[in-house]
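Late entry, DLL complex.
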Amino acid sequence: MIWNTSKECMSREQMRELQGKRLQKLVVYVYHNVPFYRRKMQEMDLSPDDIRGIDDIVKLPFTTKQDLRDNYPYGLMAAPPSEVVRVHASSGTTGNPTIVGYTRRDLSIWSEVMARSLSAYGVTREDTFSVSYGYGLFTGGLGAHYGVENLGATVIPASTGNTEKHVRLIRDLHITGIACTPSYALYLAEVVERMGIDKSELDLRIGAFGAEPWTENMRREIQERLGLKGYNIYGLSEIMGPGVSYECQEQHGSHINEDHFYPEIIDPETLCPLPAGVQGELVFTTLTKEGMPLLRYRTKDLTSLMPGTCPCGRTNVRMTPIMGRSDDMLIIRGINVFPSQVESVILGMKEFEPRYMLVVDRRGNLDTLEVQVEVRRDFFTDDIGAMLGLKKRLSDKLKSVLSISADVKLMEPNSIARSEGKSQRVIDKRVLV
Ligand code: DLL
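Prediction complete; structure with ligand written out below:
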């Protein structure tokens, strides 16, 4: 079903006109409310009057995660604090998370775009939907939650963890849909099998999977093992959260809610716009956001755009699945992790050499992170208690900075291989097949 035909099936001319009008309004808004953007535009000798339509977007400055970090925590907020009703956060490249703020209207648009996505998957008011993205600062839980409520289905705010209890709820409450990371869906399938439950005892029929890259093979495996149909959902906290784009029944690319999030593809090196169909870095401008609107935000996600009307009837542009990023961000159990976050923790503890290695793997469908780090000679001892204490202190610090637990492995001085030239800090053994 199409949730909002007037916005999802607009003619191209109407859409471009709407986007142009919204962009003009947005530029005036940020110029007057965000000193960062006013300064950037002044440096470029650009005034809001220079933006007359959507094609003028290329004149505007880019925004990067570094800009968000430099303006931590609230520097890029356009709305006054009294208008901000919710804050979320995601990992930054160092200890500081990226903070995003939403006005009441932003939240209502978010639940609208989520309802469009769920509708496209075939979710109706009759469905009972389990939201198994993490609730909290991460946008996955609450983002999906309010979308399900807006659509009128029943939401089960299961969150993550306690998987056996969750499986029992899925069976006993006749849960028909689930929103979670694709790797958690595979883990769930494993637990269902381990508990001796046959998939025919479950009523699951729809999955909304995202927050991390996944493949057609993973889709087939999840569908087969859980007896449902899995759909992609894409988003990022800086732009909104889940619901920036979504798959329809055709499952051929994800439709972007481009009346709210204007996409461009650029060459990450030259920053020049690339034509449709060519893979490059995805860039978004938030056309309607009030809390923290962003101009030309560089997502670092690599994809391409697919213009043209989809057989489902929607006209909003589609993006191909994301298989890579142009930076070093890792996504572990759906959580964004930057090697530099681990580095900042290690550098902050006198017991360690600045030598470490992250080993990422997938065991039993769950991502694992091992942090190997060299202990300084003065602190390395055969006193097991002391070593265990040190290990625990590092584990606790990493957990609080990364929001996921890491398996710490203390290494003897000089044991991590030195490399000539660019040092290798990450071994990612996961193969997405
Ligand atoms: O992951 C929002 C989200 C929650 C999306 C739940 C979908 C479902 P962040 O934590 O800010 O926000 O991470 C955003 O995750 O730039 C991509 O690299 C990656 N990502 C998100 N969805 C997908 C997807 C949420 N469907 C970063 N496929 C993005 C591939 C995805 N990568």
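The chain has a mean pLDDT of 94. Will revisit in the morning.
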